[in-house]
Amino acid sequence: MIFHTITPAEPLGYFVESILYYKEYSPLHRIDRFLPDGHVNLLIELADAPQHIYDNQSLEVIQTCKKTWFSGIRTQPISIPSGLDSEMVVVTFKKGRAYPFIGMPMYELTDLVVDAELVLGGNILELRDKIIEIQNPLAKLKAVESFLSQRFMNRFIPNEYIHFAVGSILSLPQSCTLAWLTQEVGYSQKHLIKIFKDHVGITPKAFMKVSRFQNIILEIEKSHDLHWSTLALDAGYYDQSHFIHDFRHFSGFTPAQYYDLKKDMLNYIPVG
User: Fold this and answer.
1) Phi, psi of 217 (to 5 degrees)
2) Beta-strand relationship, 87-93 and 68-71
3) Cα-only R_g, the chain
4) Is domain 2-155 classified as CATH 2.60.120?
5) pLDDT at residue 60 above 90?
6) Which residues face 42 on adjacent strands?
7) Apex 97 CA angle, 51 and 251, nearest 5
8) What average pLDDT does this structure show over 123-143?
9) Residues 25/9, Cβ–Cβ less than 8 Å
10) pLDDT confidence of residue 247
11) CA-CA distances (angstroms) from residue 239 to 40, 171, 235, 251?
12) Quick one: average pLDDT of 105-116?
């Protein structure tokens, strides 16, 4: 497998977490269940074959994606190709920081995958053509970094209120409250919810739930002696049934099922 990743320089690096490239990945399965992680992504497929999104239950194709597409923040899992026979560049935006690139409220893209040119403009297809011609993988990534920096430079205006709210939730998703956030940023709850949905794609409460779920996923990864009741309590759940309900909502599995199915890639579960 060929795999490369870069962390963009500032100011792009304030908004973009990573740009990665992979090719010749050969998993033994065709379909992954991808779990909500709070990110949004730009995906550029460099191979000719289209990619598909599958129904979570039947695994039948429900959407076809070609060339470039944009995946909004998720509140539910999605079944996607495993990467077999794919050559792809993936741009991962920092949580809550994709808004300057989109030109529309982020909630319009929540739980959706759309053609990237619809939100980023037709130049994204020209970028794809350009990086297909580049042979060196790192040079491909640098071309994407240069494109995003130059194309969107005039939009790189941080919203400190949103970034404070997102950062606070990520730090303590089990105890952060909307009342505390509004007090700290000086907005009414109604106004904070509105601008949070515009910039992040979901409400602060929904983002807290996704972040809490991600903390649980990380705890499962590093724990060698799991006690589900303790894990649920530490995550801020008052009872195990609520914990299992939320876990099943975000993954499609019970915690025990997830533990048995998971592999090495965080948030990706082989399902077909």
Assistant:
1) -60, -45
2) unpaired
3) 19
4) yes
5) yes
6) 70, 91
7) 50
8) 97
9) no
10) 94
11) 31, 22, 11, 19
12) 98
Binned at pLDDT 50, 70 and 90, residue 11 comes out as very high
Instruction: Give the whole-angstrom CA distance, residue 206 versus residue 226.
Output: 26
Q: What angle do CA 253, 174, 172 make, to 5 degrees?
A: 120
Q: Give the mean model confidence (pLDDT) for residues 63-70.
A: 96
* Domain residue ranges of the chain, discontinuous segments joined by +: 2-155, 160-265
Beta bridge partners of 220: none
Q: At what angle do helices 123-133 and 137-152 cross, to 10 degrees?
A: 160
| CA 174/CA 235 separation, integer angstroms | 6
Query: CA torsion 214→220→221→226, rounded to 10°?
Result: 170
User: Quick check: helix, strand or coil at residue 213?
Assistant: helix
Decide: 66 and 45 in contact? Cβ < 8 Å.
Answer: yes
User: For the residues 228-248, what does the mean pLDDT come to?
Assistant: 88
> Contact, 27 vs 82, CB < 8 A?
yes
Collapsed DSSP state (helix, strand, coil) of residue 55:
coil
Scanning the chain, the segments in alpha helix (DSSP H) are 99-102, 117-120, 123-133, 137-152, 160-171, 178-185, 189-200, 204-222, 228-234, 240-251, 255-261
Q: If one looks up domain 160-265 in CATH, what number appears? A: 1.10.10.60
- The size of the chain, in residues, is 272
